[in-house]
Design goal:
Elements (H helix, E strand, L loop, with lengths): L16 H6 L3 E6 L5 H4 L14 E10 L8 E15 L6 E15 L2 H8 L5 E4 L6 H11 L25 H4 L8 H7 L1
Parallel strand pairs: 4-5
Antiparallel strand pairs: 1-2, 2-3, 3-4
Length: 189
């Protein structure tokens, strides 16, 4: 009696990408936000990562040959979604920011090959390591997808802009610091 082969258990912390691609492996998970320490550092100061929704991700490996029929290359398709609270640069309150990742990675033998092919490729070209952390790659992609200047479309509180708000008069907003050498001028007399 033939028994079906046991399904391979893939570990995202220590993933053999070549074996994963050869097996056309797939993984999905909902990882807690606290797992991504560098991403947590970017969150609004008032947020608590353990209270937030996690990062939903899916990874799929495959082997593909190119048009010239060369040896099959190792590919990884990574998708992820998360909503993270960042600090609005206008009102300084938390702003929920959706992150959506859909990236393809092709793996090559060495760094020189990766550098030479990365500029002319639509996909990211990475060096094939014996074991890699899928979570580190995922965190890198999440960090790169953060907006440079997070802001609400419309802030939930009125924002006072001193430089352009006609509601602020010189007596309200003109609190200038004294000139640093003002006390020296008095000593000179």
């Amino acid at each position: 009696m033939n028994t079906p082969p046991a399904k391979t258990q893939w570990l995202p912390e220590r993933l053999d990408v070549r074996s994963f691609a050869q097996a056309s492996g797939q993984m999905s998970a909902d990882a807690p936000l606290a797992r991504f320490s560098r991403l947590v550092e970017e969150l609004s100061e008032t947020s608590r990562p353990e209270m937030l929704a996690g990062v939903q991700w899916h990874a799929e490996g495959s082997l593909r040959t190119d048009a010239q029929g060369a040896a099959p290359a190792v590919w990884l398709h990574l998708q992820a979604k998360a909503v993270v609270p960042l600090q609005c640069q206008r009102c300084l309150g938390p702003v929920d920011t959706a992150l959506d990742i859909d990236r393809w990675f092709r793996f090559v033998a060495d760094e020189a090959t990766a550098e030479a092919q990365d500029d002319e490729s639509e996909e990211d070209v990475l060096v094939l390591e014996p074991v890699m952390s899928l979570y580190d790659l995922l965190e890198d992609e999440l960090l790169m997808s953060l907006p440079l200047v997070p802001m609400h479309e419309t802030c939930p509180v009125p924002v006072v802009m001193q430089a352009s708000d006609p509601g602020i008069g010189p007596e309200d907003g003109d609190h200038r610091a004294p000139h640093p050498f003002a006390s020296l001028a008095r000593l000179k007399k």
